[in-house]
Amino acid sequence: MERGAGNPAGPRTNGARAAVRGAPEPAGAAPGGLGDRARGALLGLAVGDALGAPAENMRPSEIRRRWGRIEGFVSDDPAGTDDTEYAIFSGLLLARHGSALTVTHVERAWHLWIADLDEGPFRGAGFSERGTLENLRRGLAAPISAQHRHAWSDGLAMRAAPFGVFAAGRPGEAARLVAVDGRVSHEGEGIYGGQAVAAGVAAAMTGAGVTSVIAAALSVVPMDSWTARSLRRAVTAAQRPYPDRLTRERAVRSAVVIGGYPWTDLAPEAVGLAFGAFAAARGDFRTAVLMAVNMGRDADTTAAVAGALAGALHGASAIPRLWADAIGPVRGSCLPSMRGYHVLDIAELLTPDETEERGGDGGPPPPPPRARARADGAVGAADGPPGPGTPVGDAPATAVGR
Fold first, then answer.
1. Closest C-alpha among 331, 334, 341, 329 to residue 378
2. What is the pLDDT of residue 261?
3. Which residue in 3, 10, 75, 6 sits closest to 326, CA to CA?
4. What is the pTM of this model?
5. What is the 3-state secondary structure (H, E, C) of 195-260?
6. CA dihedral 196, 385, 342, 3 (to 10 degrees)
7. Of 68, 219, 248, 280, which has the maximum CB count within 10 A?
8. Tens of pLDDT along 256-278?
9. Among candidates 49, 182, 104, which has minimal Cα distance to 41?
10. What are residue 153's DSSP bridge partners?
11. Residue 3, SS3 per DSSP
12. In this structure, how many other beta carbons lie within 10 angstroms of the beta carbon of residue 12?
């Protein structure tokens, strides 16, 4: 996501990282199961975000001059950006309300956990988030809060994967829910981008083939939309024969990127590049994410989306161990209220034990141990996501049936 301000990073919680690596596999995380695919989707998002962050807003030629070809982390201290933190925020909100999620729930959560907190200077996020927060702080309500100059941004697409995880196998429901979330911050193509990503992840969560994942993404957006046209062009370019990898990347990029346009956070562009990389790689995680990174532009978001798609398709074991081990609890450098959560916490909250019947009218499962690591207080409102250290069940029960 193109950021409007800096992204200062706090100290990493190394103990929490070790606990993540050493934690037993949660229920439902058997290889090929929904739990494993959920972990793959959200860990894949975080890995792609961290890999792509250094190349954000760069042209491929600039990437090559600085690093040659990026083949792994180029930072000594890799970390995710607003992409990962907002995905965690939306995932927690979805875990609390499930299919009963409303625009009112989302708007109140933005107020309680972001807009109404006294965080001092703006701490870094995309321009769409900046515009949304300014509108909310001025007293504007959704959908008016989404009327700003970046309502078409990829800020919803970057946080859409949790909706596909929750609505595994139901692309239409994933698209409906992510649109509910997005009405606070996005309009038009910004909504369509989030819907395409959520639907694609929902299809991938069932092990659908690459072609079926792409078809699911296209099925939930207007066929004459910019998002659909961009996605189709990117995938078509990706599937043609080329003499080498660099030529393929140039063709996919040229198919969707508007040369000379200053904003790199266009949802139709970012979503097109991500699906193009996913198609070119035939769903292979490493190939898809690195292609997205090396095409530049909004590289953290395109790589995060490509990683979520490929991770959902193949599960967590498809992610190189070195990359997975580098992902720790988020630092709260963008959303301080999310500090201490790990994306794997969200995967567990969104995928109850596969032996349990889906649906029901009880509250979401209690948070895993990682989510309780920071018991430093949290807002106890039912309309905001649970904070670290606040068991989800402490809030009034809300339906989370799928």
1. 341
2. 79
3. 75
4. 0.84
5. HHHHHHHHHHCCCCCHHHHHHHHHHCCCCCCHHHHHHHHHHHHHCCCCCCHHHHHHHHHHHHCCCC
6. 60
7. 280
8. 998 877 778 889 999 999 999 99
9. 49
10. 266
11. strand
12. 15
Residue 255: per-residue pLDDT = 97
Q: What is the pLDDT of residues 210-253, one digit of tens each?
A: 999 999 999 999 999 999 999 999 999 999 999 999 999 999 99
pLDDT at 98: 97
Which residue in the block uniquely carries the two structure tokens 């989306």?
305
- The set of residues, in sequence order, having a beta carbon less than 8 Å from that of 347 and lying 6+ positions away, is 35, 38, 39, 41, 42, 43, 165
277: amino acid identity, one letter: A
d(CA 310, CA 194): 17
Name 145's Cβ contacts closer than 8 Å, sequence gap at least 6: 107, 110, 132, 135, 136, 184, 185
274: left (phi over 0), alpha (psi -120 to 50) or beta: alpha
> What would the DSSP string read from start to end of 328-359?
-S---SS-GGGTT--HHHHHHHHS--TTSPS-
Could you identify the residue written with the tokens 């032996």?
A: 355
Dist CA 43 CA 322 (whole Å) = 12
**CA-to-CA distance for 22 and 28, rounded, in angstroms?**
17
Q: Which residues contact 134 (CB under 8 A, 6 or more apart)?
A: 148
In tens, the pLDDT along 83-138 reads 999 999 999 999 999 999 999 999 999 999 988 886 655 555 677 788 888 888 89
- Give the integer Cα–Cα distance in Å for 136 and 147: 11
Write down the residue that tokens 């992902």 correspond to: 327
pLDDT tens digits, residue range 23-72?
Answer: 334 444 567 799 999 999 999 999 999 999 999 999 999 999 999 999 99
DSSP string covering 144-185: GGG-STTTTBTTTGGG-HHHHHHTTT-HHHHHHHHHHHHTTT
Tokens of 385: 């996501």
